[in-house]
Amino acid sequence: MAEKLNTGSHDLPISEALAEFMRDGWADTHEDVAPLPGAAYAAKRRARLTERLPGERLVIPSGTLRARSNDDDHRFRTHSAFAYLTGGQQPDDVLVIEPSGEARLFLHPRPSRAESQEFYRDRRYGEFWVGRRFDLAEAEAAYQIECAHIGTLPAALNGPARVLRGVDASVDALVSPSGDDRDAELAAVLSELRLVKDEWEIAELQQAVDATARGFEDVVRALPAALAHPRGERYVEGVFGLRSRLEGNAVGYQSIVASGAHACVLHWIRNDGRLDPAEMLLLDAGVEGDNLYTADVTRTLPLSGRFSPVQRQVYDLVYEAQTAAIAVLRPGARFREFHETAMRVISDGLREWGLLTKSQADAGLHRRYTLCSSGHMLGLDVHDCARARAETYLDGVLEEGQVLTVEPGLYLQPDDLTLPPELRGIGVRIEDDLVITADGARLMSAALPRRADEIEAWMAALAG
After folding, report:
1. What is each CA distance from 461 to 1, 188, 189, 455, in whole angstroms?
2. Which metal ions or organic cofactors does this protein require, according to UniProt (predicted)?
3. Quick one: DSSP state of residue 357?
């Protein structure tokens, strides 16, 4: 049977003579591979998953490559549940945990060059096209898991199993859905296990936050050039993106670089606007580390280096709300409590400004000016643990080891006639990353200033 290869319509034909010439004459490049960072922690996580769903076969794919355009793929980013349980970051791999609790990792190993043309012809897996992959022995050493060729996966899935669905359609097709929400429960449990971070995860997150702080410093230093560029927002995006690639895997999510009234758009990622020194810049960005844990930090900066009185008015109210929210973080507190605390401060402030009556405030109408939640869990995903059941997350209580963001904001739309003209078009968000400790919370992003006067002094110092 002819070897199945991922080739393109414009690839040159291979003659029999060339195929024979390519077959041998290569040095042995097998490597002694050390275990991946975090491999021991991944083994403990698999054990915890088995304890939650004992006696079951569990199937967790890494995901597949996605086309960006024609035969050009997006850079691969593995599914977070797979990374959590293995540390792996390759496409088309599948973790199978047997009812006994033993794990096997099915993957596409580096083949023998004497037996396969893949290494120089296959655009998806070929070593000459995309770089070297592990052979089976190297993979077992790296992952500390028994490994097998992906081609043997169908035979291994010869009975009932729970599958993390929607990640790899070819894997979904191998196991018929049970129809009783068993697969949905697997997805929920995988999210819930990630609610509390182990010490290795917290260290990874701290590294990502520290790199993010350096990225924000890079941006402030680059503001003179960005202000002079017709696409200043995109200039800032590029500066931060450089830091994320130098110190990590990539940005953890699409950077929000919003100047002026763009800051009133919650997820402004077009980033195609000009910077105006009379306006502010809302920068919401995070470095994703090499092991895929991401930071998520926002600062709103006066592009002139100093807040105007009205900018300071809005900024100070958001700062007051965030400070109050952080103060209530502790083990045993309801998850929603910090958001409710921030919103009380925002609502009271809007009343003091004359924008809300007492009855409007009591009815929750402050949300016209601040529609989104004030924070979320953080980890391998920027909005981590998203499939956890409400009773364990949104309606649950905080626990030591959880990492979350606190990010209240005010978004005063430029066309909102309930606002005085001087407030229209101002958007402010302040976002920090925190880890819940035994008696409160530690500010992981403390390297970046929060108060308005600290922001101004920090910007002045970086400007030299």
Report:
1. 68, 47, 47, 10
2. Mn(2+)
3. -
Q: What is the pLDDT of residues 74-122, one digit of tens each?
A: 999 999 999 999 999 999 999 999 999 999 999 999 999 999 999 999 9
Q: Which sign, positive or negative, has the C-alpha torsion 51, 397, 438, 41?
A: positive
The closest of 65, 75, 87, 83 to 251, measured between CA atoms, is 75
Gap between the Cα atoms of 150 and 3, Å rounded: 15
Please answer whether residues 428 and 314 qualify as being in contact, where contact means their C-beta atoms are separated by less than 8 angstroms.
yes
Query: Could you state, in order of their start, the residue ranges of all structural domains in the chain?
Result: 17-193, 199-463
For residue 262, report the phi and psi dihedrals to the nearest 5 degrees: -60, -25
Instruction: Give the pair of three-digit tokens for residue 156.
Output: 């291994």
Classify domain 17-193 at the CATH topology level.
Creatine Amidinohydrolase; Chain A, domain 1 (3.40.350)
Are 113 and 69 contacting, i.e. CB atoms less than 8 angstroms apart?
no
Contact 48, 193 (CB under 8 A): yes
CB 370 within 8 A of CB 343: yes
At 22-49, the pLDDT tens digits run: 999 999 999 999 999 999 999 999 999 9
Q: Is the pLDDT reported for residue 216 higher than 90?
A: yes
Which sign, positive or negative, has the C-alpha torsion 40, 45, 49, 51?
Answer: positive
CATH number of this structure's domain 199-463: 3.90.230.10
Quote the Cα angle for 347-350-352, to 5°.
110
Crossing angle of the two packed helices 182-193 and 39-52, in degrees rounded to 10: 140
What ranges make up the beta strands (E) of 227-336?
Answer: 250-251, 256-259, 280-285, 287-288, 297-302
What's the whole-model pTM score? 0.97
Q: Are strands 409-412 and 403-406 parallel, antiparallel or unpaired?
A: unpaired
